[in-house]
Each structure stands twice: as C-alpha cells, then as structure tokens.
Amino acid sequence: MSGVLPQIWLRLMSDPAFAARLRADFAGTLRREGYIEGLEVQELPAVFAWHRALQDGASPHWLPAPAGATPPLPAAVVARSPS
C-alpha cells in the first residue's frame, strides 16, 4: 500500500494543469505565511516535507536552514526579513 501514494503523486504531478494549480495554491499559502514564492514544481515534495516538519514542532525561526538542520528548507523558499 505504501507504493500507491507515490504513484498517485507522480501521476498527478505529470499533469501540467494540476501541477500549475497546486503550485499557485501553495505559493499563495507561502505568501500568507510570510515566505516569498519562487518554487519549481519538482521542489514541492521537499517543501511539503519541510512544512510537515514545522507542523510536527520543528522551529521555523531559522531561514534558510543551517547545514544538517531539521527540517532542511528548500533553497527556493526565502524568509521575508522581520522589520
């Protein structure tokens, strides 16, 4: 059963219209959360993993993540400077 979800994900992401919509929706979420959107579709799984780690209690106070930090932040996601 664990092999089914990756297959579904790959099939969905191979649909350009779905991938574009998902990217736009997630970019809106990143902007609302204070991050600048500059993602490639291929980077979305890493971003989702990073976001899930934040929900699980990882600290969001470092951006970009130091080497070896958990969760690693995809390079395309940049924090907005606090003012």
Question: Can you give a write-up of this model?
Answer:
- 48% of the residues lie in helices and 5% in strands.
- The protein has helices at 4-13, 16-33, 44-55; strands at 35-36, 78-79.
- It is flat.
Tell me the layout of helices and strands.
Elements: H1 4-13, H2 16-33, E1 35-36, H3 44-55, E2 78-79
Antiparallel strand pairs: 1-2
Number of strands: 2
Residue-averaged pLDDT: 61
Shape: flat
Query: Helical proportion?
Result: 40-55%
Number of domains: 1
What sequence of helices (H) and strands (E) makes up the elements?
HHEHE
**In angstroms, what separates the terminal alpha carbons?**
47 Å
Low-confidence stretches: 78-83
- Largest sheet at a glance? 2 strands, antiparallel
Strand order of the largest sheet: 1-2
What value does the Rg take, in angstroms?
14 Å
Give me the number of helical elements: 3
